[in-house]
Design goal:
The structure holds two protein chains of two kinds. In chain A, α2 packs antiparallel against α3. The model of chain A has no long low-confidence stretch (mean pLDDT 92). The longest helix of chain A has 22 residues. Helix content of chain A is 37%, strand content 27%. Chain A is globular. By secondary structure, chain A is of the alpha+beta class. By secondary structure, chain B is of the alpha/beta class. Chain B has four helices and seven strands; from the N terminus they run βββαββαβαβα. In chain B, β1 and β2 form a beta hairpin. Classes of the chains: A alpha+beta, B alpha/beta. Chains A and B meet through α2, α3 and α4 of A and α2 and α3 of B.
């Protein structure tokens, strides 16, 4: 094994956690921090990009919906990086997902006339497209969204 | 200002001077965009070359902008960086907008 590969293999392993308030600006920082961490682990840019998009959508959902009618609570993202990929667990104490389930995240229809173009509804579709596995658990007043990104 | 614009030939070039168009600034983007494009050429090119990241709110803000434009006006996008292009491609919004690698490509492209 070349020295560079050994170094990369060692970098691509570890756990870290991000904690932030469920506000748009704090979320923005957390999303950027995550991307920086992954780049520092010398992960390919396409991988960093995919994780960043999915993570941003998940976090935006929490900011917008989970704490919608209350003061912004805390969000914690626990990240585990290993040779097979990245697992991110996002925890918050806001409202549960509607019906306690992950939305289907169907593709949005963009084929109609300009005036009918959708301006939203892309989030869960993007999350499902970009994750290798996605699961949700509600327990003890806490939401836990787990996303896995295989390398 | 997040957006600045200049008119050249038959097009208005709106330059995004931010590295992200995300949930925190989607509303501001929509408002500024509306102001920039309310007058001037029918053809508008949005220069996204400084934008490293866009989320679905940012995408929605760009869509909202084109929805305000009557059919005879067009909004082209230029200089999409990889992550931004990925969001457009995954959502199939690359079928809705013309995407150009650079501002030059957008300016020299035939009208259709």
């Amino acid at each position: 094994m070349q020295p560079e590969q050994g170094r990369d293999a060692r970098r691509r392993h570890g756990s870290f956690s991000l904690s932030f308030a469920a506000t748009e600006l704090d979320a923005r920082s957390a999303i950027a921090s995550l991307a920086e961490r992954l780049r520092a682990a010398t992960l390919p840019e396409s991988f960093v990009s995919a994780v960043q998009i999915a993570f941003a959508e998940a976090v935006n959902n929490i900011v917008e919906h989970a704490y919608a009618d209350a003061a912004a609570g805390d969000v914690q993202a626990r990240c585990d990086l290993g040779p097979e990929g990245l697992r991110i667990e996002i925890l918050d104490s806001g409202h549960p997902l509607p019906d306690g389930q992950l939305p289907a995240g169907a593709p949005v229809d963009v084929s109609g006339p300009r005036t009918c173009l959708p301006e939203g509804g892309f989030g869960w579709f993007l999350i499902r497209e970009l994750t290798s596995e996605l699961s949700y658990l509600r327990s003890g007043g806490t939401n836990r969204l787990t996303m896995r990104f295989d390398i | 200002m997040t957006l600045t614009s200049t008119v050249t030939g038959t097009a208005r070039i709106v330059t995004v001077n931010a590295d992200r168009i995300d949930a925190a600034m989607a509303i501001q983007f929509k408002e500024e965009m509306r102001a920039e494009i309310e007058s001037g050429p029918d053809h508008v090119i949005l220069d996204l070359s400084a934008v490293d990241f866009i989320d679905s709110s940012g995408l929605g803000a760009i869509v909202a902008s084109v929805k305000q434009m009557p059919d005879h006006r067009r909004l082209d996008l230029a200089g999409l960086t990889p992550t931004v292009e990925k969001v457009f491609r995954l959502t199939r919004m690359d079928m809705v907008f013309r995407l150009f690698p650079s501002l030059d490509d957008a300016l020299t492209a035939p009208p259709n």
